[in-house]
Write a structure and sequence with these properties.
Layout (H helix, E strand, L loop, with lengths): L2 E7 L2 E15 L4 E11 L5 H9 L8 E10 L5 E8 L3 E3 L4 E5 L3 E6 L2 H6 L7 E6 L1 E8 L4 E12 L4 E5 L2 E7 L4 H7 L3 E13 L4 H8 L5
Antiparallel strand pairs: 1-2, 2-4, 2-7, 3-4, 5-10, 6-9, 6-12, 7-10, 8-9, 11-14, 12-14, 13-14
């Protein structure tokens, strides 16, 4: 499999991928530069896939980079999280996907209509679904924590959950049973994750992390 590295320099992060007759995929526009004998293939998916990605506000094309050499992906003021896919499918929050091994399968996951409406996504909320084996790179605004649920639940305010395993059910509910008290509490809608599986959570940005830990902010 390809070698993925997260490089941190001058307060920004970028991804370096070393290929040895291998293939990776990346988000459209993610390429910064490459070295070596590497070909770029940007094929269109089937018509159904195009429509789903447009509805999900995802990139219609996620280019493939095949060959031997080094691929450098664009820097990001936030950061990245790299994790291993071990035959357990994951569902990624919109905008979280950045790159993956060529063996990783990409598809679209559709939330229920009610969840879509309450989350502010309209009638259709589609997210990226990854399955198979290999490395997956997520874009993150801050440090990522893995949380394991065992027939339990996690309640979050906002999109701090970047990804969840397929066994975790997701829904959106009011902060309180009463609409008025939900408004007064400032928590109109909360994201609730229940079941057994794993979550990747990023609850605060890097600048806050550095301030809390006493590190110098570059």
């Amino acid at each position: 499999m390809a070698l993925f590295e997260i490089i941190d320099d001058e307060g920004v992060s970028f991804i370096k991928v070393t290929l040895d007759d291998e293939m990776i995929r990346a988000e459209r526009g993610a390429l910064n530069y490459l070295r070596g004998d590497i070909k770029i293939n940007a094929r269109l998916p089937p018509l159904g896939g195009i429509l789903k990605r447009l509805l999900a506000e995802q990139s219609v094309v996620r280019p493939r980079y095949t060959g031997t050499g080094e691929v450098y992906l664009e820097s990001y003021i936030g950061g990245y999280h790299l994790f291993d896919l071990d035959d357990t499918p994951w569902i990624l929050e919109k905008g979280a996907y950045w790159a993956s091994d060529g063996e990783v399968e990409l598809s679209v996951f559709r939330e229920t209509v009610m969840t879509s409406l309450f989350s502010g996504e309209g009638f259709v909320a589609l997210q990226t679904h990854v399955s198979g084996q290999g490395k997956v790179v997520l874009r993150s605004r801050g440090p990522v924590q893995e949380i394991e649920l065992n027939d339990d639940r996690l309640v979050a305010d906002g999109r701090c959950v970047l990804a969840r395993t397929e066994g975790i059910e997701y829904r959106v509910r009011r902060g309180d049973q009463s609409f008025i008290t939900s408004l007064l509490s400032g928590e109109r809608h909360l994201r609730v994750f229940t079941g057994t599986g794993r979550l990747l959570l990023s609850s605060y940005p890097y600048w806050r992390y550095m301030l809390l830990s006493g590190e110098e902010v570059k």
